[in-house]
Amino acid sequence: MRKLLLSFVFQNDMALPPDLQSPESYVISLSPSPGISPSAFEELYTNPNFFIPPVLKARSSFDLASIAIIAAFLLLSVLSFLFIFHLRLQSRRMQHLQEFNSLWIVRLLLVTFAILWAVNEIIRLPNVRRTYLDPFLTLNQQTNLCKFHVVLSLGLYEPGFLITLLFLVNVSIKKKNPCRMWALLCVSMVCSPMTLIQTVLVYFAPLETQLPKFVHGSSILTIDFQGNKTVLCTYPFFGCVVFLVFAIVYALAFLISCWRVLDVVINKSIRVRINVLLAAIMVALPMQIICLGLSWLWLPEDDEYGCVVLVMFFCIVTCMVVGEVILIIKPITDALVAGCECCRRFLG
């Protein structure tokens, strides 16, 4: 007869309390099946491949899919970096490109937010953390890492990307571009409240003792059959509600900005780009909110949870890809082509 440990404990900012550190209260005894001899059961149980951690079984395929998507997205972001710096160099010797390149730092900030968000999502993946981070971290440190992930993802990187995106759309119809420092200050001031609110809700959860753990908890502690403890990251209810409010306000502001641009622009190609960008935002944000709501129905080690998070992750990546292509790669390509055409006419 073997005793197998099977339990999970919601965890926020502390390791297991002293009264839960003893596994006896969470132990169930499984006896061998009548059709299996004790020696066969003993051999089956001691096989290292028999009790595979459920996290690895449930999430490995989703983690691999997420890593593949992130790898492709990072390649596109690096390409966007190259386009920005190439235009920066070309604008020094082409006078007509200097005005277009005046906001190159803002475009650089847009790509930086996207890359940092992708790296933050890689750190969140259970298999990546189990392999490269968890062996060197205590349970408290793993829990703090999950808190840090929530604050950066829902409070800084994604809101920062969206706000920078909105700023570039608004600036596109202005006759004169603002100075670079003012643009960075504007983006920072709009992002700061969201980051501050998420930090307060995650690290200083109000009514923590009176409310259920899922309302303010950003992680969950799981214990597999072999007694291995793993801290998995979740999205707290409070943080998701704050992001929902931000998404509603942002969607309305972005919709109004796109309507203003469409009223001014007469180029058919640019109108198509704005419509595609608007559709990407209006689809990605509601899908993310729906997936965040559905994620509370399952534990992070369940297949359904992994599927929901993967769909949410894919929607956000698609939105960022559309933003980089439409606001960085395509405009820079058009500007460089126009610059080459002007040079040919001047030489002719």
From TrEMBL:
The transmembrane segments are 64-89, 101-119, 148-169, 181-205, 235-262, 274-299, 305-329
Record keywords, A-Z = Membrane, Transmembrane, Transmembrane helix
Task: State whether keyword Ribosomal protein applies.
Answer: no
* Superkingdom of origin organism: Eukaryota
State the name under which the record lists this protein.
Uncharacterized protein LOC111403609
